[in-house]
Amino acid sequence: MRKHKAAWTVSLGLAIVIGFAPLTWAGPNSEAQKMFADKCVRCHADNGSGDTAVGKALGAADLRTPVVQKLTDAQIYAQIDQGKGNMPPFGSGLSKVQINGLVAFVRSLAKTSEAAKHKPAAKRKR
Fold this sequence. Notes:
Elements: H1 2-24, H2 30-39, H3 41-44, H4 53-58, H5 66-69, H6 73-82, H7 96-117
């Protein structure tokens, strides 16, 4: 009976961990990408460059730069949560999990930017 109870407890624990893994270990995903498109693109552009009319007017950061990417996750989280400079706070409208997803998405922007730099140039047609 004790072995059966222990096995059941372990199975339940694993099910809980696996079931909540996407929520606790937030990485760049389609939900974060949708939130970025909804909340951030107006100023930061879809690639994170800040190259939009509003972004230029407000001095929005290029999220792909080493300056931004060297920030800790906690610092990026705090900026999304509490705002900074011209950036409004989003903490009251987003959950911790959603903000962590956005942090991971911001991290992924540098990787996509770096990959684009190393892409071979397209061949010109003559």
